[in-house]
Automatic annotation (TrEMBL):
The keyword Cell inner membrane does not apply. This is [acyl-carrier-protein] S-malonyltransferase. Residues 301-333 are annotated as: Disordered. The lineage of its organism: Bacteria, Bacillati, Actinomycetota, Actinomycetes, Kitasatosporales. Its EC number is 2.3.1.39. It catalyses: holo-[ACP] + malonyl-CoA = malonyl-[ACP] + CoA.
Length: 412
């Protein structure tokens, strides 16, 4: 981040707030190679993970601005709406960090009932019908991500029933990594505490256009921005409607300003092919890589590096080595098999092979939907001459490590 001082300043401001609220700084999670993994944070420090997710959004927005990319319209998903308001100048990065800390403290004080989220691979109308049939207290269709996914929110016992009936109907259900029943009235007490805690923080009108999925319209005033903040915890998220609105108004390139690709996948699966979704993750992580990714999508980014302008279409770094040929690995040669699978999946998905680590979750981390995963598993089956894949095992094959284990098992 040495070439974009504002990104470093934003991260420093966030860490100053985070530590003042008794949390460990999140900067190391973004900058250190040996930082805890996503799984470790989920198991041991979910609060710090939430703070790191916002910090990533804030830094990404500054990095994009630093290479000359400023969105015509900003939009966030769920808690990402706070990041959109911050990038638009309605709230400072430090104050959003204070909001994030206040949100965590509100959950701890209110102690809402154990709950979570389950993603169903069905449109919103089908998910709402399923919720209505179950008629479980506190169960809600909370997030509409498009024709292929709706997220249901509710108590853990109710979510278990959702998963069971989904299995009976042949509908893919994925338990998301969430500690609470977000976008649900079950969080009303925590939401009240949160609103009290942030009432004095300054929230102004955005200086850049912001479309709020939660409000279903543009944020045109300080009052609108405050409403986004105060409704965020319990209001449903009609994200699909928001995407359709922006597409109909002419938006064609959607850049995801974060470290994951969940929203990129939603755009690709929900909008017509004229829409281009650009994640930052496939770049190598440096500014040159980000610029190259954006240029490929037709975004006219330019950047200054050490006093010289990066030439069109070039990036720094060593050339990639020769790619292994899928199907060459001998049984028991797990590292080589993982490398082959990474190349195979990278070729189909358009991601750099080095990004496809053994433990990265294809759906949760990359936004690869179930239909695409099934097609890729069939390609793996043909590539390695495997027998028909057991139906029950397909659901487990969401990481390259699990897929490699399945290949080895079926090749014996």
């Amino acid at each position: 981040m040495k070439h974009v001082p504002r990104a470093a300043q934003a991260l420093e401001a966030i860490d100053e707030v985070v530590t003042a609220h008794g949390h460990r700084p999140v900067g190391p999670l973004l900058l250190e190679r040996d930082a805890p993994s996503l799984q470790d944070l989920l198991a041991e420090d979910g609060d710090r993970l939430d703070l790191a997710i916002y910090a990533t959004n804030a830094v990404a927005a500054e990095l994009l601005a630093g290479v000359g990319v400023r969105g015509d319209v900003l939009m966030g998903h769920s808690f990402g709406e706070f990041a959109a308001l911050s990038a638009a100048g309605a709230v400072s990065a430090a104050d959003v960090a204070r909001m994030a800390c206040a949100r965590i403290e509100a959950f701890h004080r209110a102690a809402p009932p154990a709950g979570g989220l389950v993603a169903l691979d069905v449109p919103a109308w089908r998910a709402s019908h399923l919720v209505g049939v179950l008629d479980e207290p506190g169960l809600r269709a909370a997030i509409d991500n498009g024709p292929d996914q709706t997220v249901v929110s509710g108590p853990l016992e109710a979510l278990e029933k959702v998963e069971k009936i989904a299995a009976d109907l042949g509908v893919r259900a994925t338990r998301l990594r969430a500690g609470y029943a977000f976008h649900n009235p079950l969080l009303n007490d925590a939401a009240d505490l949160f609103r009290e805690a942030v009432a004095d923080l300054h929230v102004g009108a955005p200086r850049t256009a912001v479309f709020s999925p939660g409000l279903g319209r543009y944020v045109s005033s300080a009052e609108d921005a405050r409403e986004v903040v105060e409704r965020n915890m319990t209001a449903p998220v009609p994200f699909y409607d928001a995407l359709l609105t922006l597409f109909r108004q002419g938006a064609r390139v959607f850049v995801e300003a974060g470290a994951r690709q969940a929203l990129t996948g939603i755009v690709r699966s929900s909008l017509p092919s004229a829409a281009i979704a650009v994640p930052l993750l496939p770049s190598r992580g440096d500014l040159d890589g980000i610029v190259a990714s954006l240029r490929e999508a037709g975004v006219g980014a330019r950047m200054e590096t050490d006093g010289h302008r990066v030439p069109e279409g070039t990036t720094d770094g060593p050339p990639a080595g020769p790619a292994p040929t899928a199907g060459d690995a001998e049984p028991g040669d797990r590292p080589r098999l993982l490398a082959e699978l990474a190349e195979l999946y990278a070729d189909d998905l358009g991601f750099p092979a080095e990004m496809l680590t053994a433990d990265i979750d294809l759906e949760a981390d990359l936004g690869v939907d179930s239909a695409k995963q099934t097609a890729l598993l069939e390609r793996v089956r043909r590539q390695y001459g495997l027998p028909a894949l057991p139906g029950g095992r397909r659901a487990e094959a969401t990481t390259l490590e699990n897929i490699a284990a399945l290949v080895e098992e079926l090749r014996r």
